Prior knowledge:
Blueprint: H1 2-39, H2 44-53, E1 60-66, E2 73-77, E3 82-83, H3 89-101, E4 106-118, E5 121-129, H4 138-150, E6 155-156, E7 160-163, E8 199-206, E9 211-217, E10 225-226, E11 229-231, H5 238-241, E12 244-247, E13 250-253, E14 256-258, E15 264-268, H6 275-289, E16 293-294, E17 298-300, E18 308-317, H7 318-328, H8 331-346, H9 352-365, E19 387-388, H10 389-400, H11 405-410, E20 434-441, E21 444-452, E22 458-466, H12 474-487
Parallel strand pairs: 5-6, 5-7, 6-16, 7-17, 10-13, 11-14
Antiparallel strand pairs: 1-2, 1-22, 3-19, 4-5, 4-18, 8-9, 8-15, 12-13, 20-21, 21-22
Helix pairs in contact: 2-12, 3-7, 3-8, 8-9
Amino acid sequence: MRGIIQRNLSFFAGAHLKKILALSLLLSSSFLSVSVQAQESVPASFSKALQAAGIPLQSVGVYVQEVDGTGQVLASSNAAMPFNPASTMKLVTTDAALELLGPTYRWKTQAYAAGSQVGNVLQGDLIFKGNGDPKLVLENFWLFLRQIRAKGIRDIRGNIVLDRSAFDQNAYDPAEFDGDPMKPYNVGPDALLLNYKTLTFQFVPDADKRQVSVVLDPPMSGYPVRPPRLGLGSCDDWQGKLQAAVDIDGASFNGALPASCGEKTWYVNPYKMSSTQYFGAVFRQMWSDLGGSFSGSVKDGVTPPDARLVAEWSSVTLPEVIRDINKYSNNVMARQVLLTIAADILKLPATPERGARAIQSWLAGKGIDASGLVIENGSGLSRNEKISAKTMGRMMASAFQSPTMPEFVSSMPLVGYDGTMRKRLKDQSVAGQAHVKTGTLNDVRAIAGYVLAASGKYYAVVCLINHPNAPRGQAAQDGLLQWVYENG
């Protein structure tokens, strides 16, 4: 009897186990099916919006993942395919900078003296050594020069030497990207970048005197400005009508400013003027305004080993810099940050290639597949930069768990309120509930950021459109953000 019972128990146990295994396989299959569907599906409303815009789904990379819970993939399409991300590439550069450099990182710019100081006379050179400060703007440079004057130096009897050795001095063509070298976003990287190497011309027409006055900022020693005539007609293409000629000897506006324009401001990259010439002209004017004298040359060089430190300027912290980069899509500052990563991590003169390698190693250390990642300058101002929606999304999910998450998230535009998203989705319920970086190039429209859904869950949302009709894809992207808010 005992043997019969044991055989029956074994049979029932085996049968039960088979049922459990069968049920497990069924559930696993169901979960796999759901997972596959999630990985290959997007909202029907999103698909319809793309169709209305004439954008095929295969031209779009989408990845939506919960970042603070199960990691559920809510929507995905072509997620592993590399796309041009335009300015959303700045999120990769700035997230890497926060984690690799740290949220308290500051750039240091030093002033050294080579020679003896007798009273207020420096019998030798004054050397400025840069480390890539992206925000050495005029007011900060003025305060830096005040520090030097406070050390008793008034008369410099040698030269001004500019040490840019922190960055590799590669040739840079400001016209390469779009053939418009006067655009401020085409300013190249510089270890001693001063005031974004930009000139600001403010045109003030006077109808009574039939003339136009021009105010130049920054004021530059020995840099004359010839104003335009006051003209008639419409204000369309007013910059072209000025017939500007901006070079190392001055600025001439040989055309006319239509009176109908009123006051106008034009930001210009004086690309025919080298960074050394620009720095020199600004320095001469500011040093003179501070009561100093200098009659030597301004030239590139390196800091001598025996030079003594006179003063040091400390920049704002990294989070303040990345806020400017991400909220206002500052390309020049993003380039500076990529090179800073290279210089700080590799301890070599920085190049974009070295910065890219440092970021790829950083992602690999997180276990994030970045096989399709191509970084040319870290700003997204490139036809060659690539990243998949999944790589971007997984990076953002990881960033949400990082100690630097608050700084990273707050650096992005708040939907409906500020930055490049201030005019979008203002009347939708997702307004104020998402931080999203935008990206725009010809044939490219991209968004990447975080949505706080109505459920209280956070999602990383990435949508990269690469298609000639991409400019018509904004409605689809806005609709995706609203859908995540409502359904996440």
